[in-house]
From TrEMBL, chains A, B:
Highest taxon above the source species: Bacteria
Name of the protein in question: Aspartate aminotransferase family protein
Organism of provenance: Vineibacter terrae
GO molecular function, one term: transaminase activity
Pfam families: Aminotran_3
Keyword hit for Transferase: yes
Necessary cofactors: pyridoxal 5'-phosphate
Length: 425, 425
């Protein structure tokens, strides 16, 4: 099976345009720990995948999966201890206000629940998001997608500029002034929704603004934005699909950017590849949602989801992954920041824990998407898998499994240096 | 762990109102083949669950799951042979016009894709469904839920009365007259959408009207409805989430009710409990959808979905389940139909293959939901798990794993007879 033949079969069976990474797509056959292997046996260090968060093919997760699927896997309208215990363990990882959980099969479904929950609880329709976000692919959640969108947000949705220090809406402003400027935009959006009759149901935001390119946020913005939303009667939804599960070196992104959500959405890393996501909130919010919707999700809240979800939490705790992510991530970010001073291509190095963005720029500091794509492909040819992201597509996105080690980081830095040399040379 | 304690913990962790079956909920711990076992070791014949379609804990499925999760499970933006082969195998089970597949994690997500696909392809918004249907729990798909809805369908959605012979919209009409009467209602709905400016994007229908209570449909209605929709420029979406995968003794429900869909949605049984669903259509429809949306679904189209989906198809073919379902289902339906003449409680016996509805009525033939619920609970106490369904909640729903045998059917008939005797006596 050549890759060319497989590409043609894939285009027929899955349709043209099913997304593929890299100029020369990777034909992948095996994963183990932080490594992926292609059909020719070539080994790559996976620096992209956050779903297999405890590493590809982790034996403890595989064992939990086979044990539960071989014992019982059925829908949730029976009593089952495992799913209750998993929900209890998950809520204990949040502050006391987060008490109950609705499980779903995807981040999209979990964000659907969050939006409906906020709208039902407030009796209002208006949702505020950022202008470079992505929260999922359903019709309702897709309305929040501003990344690459041709139309401005409208109707029940208002997009505000994402807060950042690198290309701020008020150039040259102090941190405090910038914070006020972004808060003004949020206030405008709230008032706009109120005047339109939609009213404010809530703010939804990735806690670390991942799709926006992991910007440095003016100090205090997130907490004050949350206060402003609540003072206007809205709810704050933290989308932790990318930010959560120790990705940042803390359990949750909202601990890093310092705000308290009313509703927390989790997804990608929860099942190490098993479809599993969740919407957690106060019992009162969840009760109201359940009473109004009789929500049921066939595949969710299953014994399989619970067993695998528990196994992932086991590994994170047993292997000390949160602490490891904090240490390895800080060292990698520091090493990359050093390189920023030495290489004009690197406009900025940002991020938290093992979620780091390297901003690639032209000579005048403008975003250089083309060069970013070139770097991603060149590093891939050297055996390291990354991608590009951010509002301008010019951020090299580093987001490996949480088991990524100091040694892997050093190997990557050598390859990154060589890639920059290739390009400069 | 008593059931009472577990109910209290469940209400806290999952919120009040997370749905539970039976007056005395079942505390379930194990499944094997067509059997489920409770915490006290009591064995039940599962006559409800269509998700574990090849039987609970089927070893071939478990083996495929562990092998793939232990080898590779990652998102779909790499080339992977397994997912392409699964899509090819799935499309080969449909007529030639169904060529390409978009995988998702749930029937809801797959119906979201189908609706968006129909709307994009036609450039129109209007969707027609039946007045007692359910296609999923997202905001967009939930607008089609008429079952128990307080509001009439409106906006871009029009609901038509589901076609049936038992309580038809024109009492006393011949079959041919009745077919015309229901087609008139469909024509009205199309014209209504056209006048409203929404236009007709498509008709979405469960191919065997499962949530409507498996009614006997006036002959020829479905094919003529599909023709009328296409003649008006709309697309026909067959929701095969319940009807498909040999449930009826044929591969697809549309073979039973005899129409040709443009878009086919499958879900529940595809992964024997692994979240897995799909939207299949012509390559042209899929290409257009992909080009317009750049659709990506993190957990879907994964090597795990493909391996498990393949294993389910293996078992269905190797164990001859389609033929078995046809034979066991026909015998069970015939045996229940005999009882209809002998017992005034039984108003009707309907269905296809191993999806049978027993309509429970009062003395004057009106739907008797209360008595239906009583029967379902009494049969459960005798060791057989069913549920109630239908537009009036008065249909005992029989929908066991496809491996349900003649012997299980005979055991059930004994328990059913004893239950009717208990009630009559």
């Amino acid at each position: 099976m050549t890759s060319t033949t497989l590409v043609a079969r894939r285009e027929q069976a899955l349709g043209a345009g099913a997304p593929l990474f890299y100029n020369e797509p990777l034909h992948i056959v095996r994963g183990e720990g932080v490594h992926l292997f292609d059909a020719d046996g070539r080994r790559y260090v996976d620096m992209y995948n956050n779903v297999p968060c405890v590493g590809h093919a982790h034996p403890h997760v595989v064992e939990a999966m086979v044990r539960q699927q071989g014992t019982l896997n059925v829908h949730s309208r029976y009593l089952h201890e495992g799913i209750v215990a998993f929900a209890e363990r998950l809520t204990r990882l949040h502050p006391a206000g987060i008490q109950s959980v609705i499980f779903t099969c995807s981040g999209t479904e979990a964000n659907e629940v969050a939006l409906r929950m906020a709208r039902m609880a407030t009796g209002r329709r208006g949702i505020i998001c950022t202008n470079a976000t992505y929260h999922g692919n359903s019709e309702a959640v897709g309305k929040l997608t501003r990344l690459g969108a041709e139309q401005p947000a409208g109707g029940d949705v208002r997009a505000i500029p994402f807060p950042e220090k690198l290309r701020p809406i008020v150039p040259g402003a102090s941190d405090a002034e910038l914070c006020e400027a972004y808060l003004d935009r949020l206030r405008d959006a709230i008032q706009h929704l109120e005047r339109s009759g939609a009213g404010l149901a809530g703010l939804i935001v990735c806690s670390i603004l991942a799709n926006e390119g992991l910007p440095d946020i003016p100090d205090g913005f997130m907490a004050r934005a949350a206060e402003m939303v609540r003072a206007s009667g809205g709810l704050v939804i933290a989308d932790e699909v990318q930010a959560g599960y120790c990705r940042t070196g803390r359990w949750w992104g909202y601990e890093v950017t310092r705000f308290t959500p009313d509703i927390v959405v989790t997804g990608k890393p929860m099942g190490n590849g098993l479809p599993l996501a969740a919407t957690a909130a106060s019992k009162a919010l969840v009760d109201t949602f359940r009473a109004r919707t009789r929500y049921f999700n066939t595949f969710a809240s299953s014994p399989l989801q619970a067993a695998v979800g528990m196994a992932v939490l086991d590994v994170i705790e047993r292997e000390g992954l949160r602490e490891k992510v904090a240490a390895v991530g800080a060292a990698l970010k520091a090493a990359l920041t050093q390189r920023k001073g030495r290489c004009a291509l690197i406009g900025d190095v940002r991020g938290h824990g093992l979620f780091i963005g390297i901003e690639i720029v032209t000579g005048d500091g403008s975003p250089d998407r083309e060069r970013t794509v070139e770097i991603v492909n060149r590093i891939k040819d050297k055996g390291f898998l990354t991608s590009n992201a951010g509002a301008f597509g010019n951020v090299v996105k580093i987001r490996p499994p949480l088991t990524f080690s100091q040694r892997h980081a050093e190997e990557f830095l050598d390859a990154f240096d060589a890639t920059l040399d290739d390009i400069d040379g």
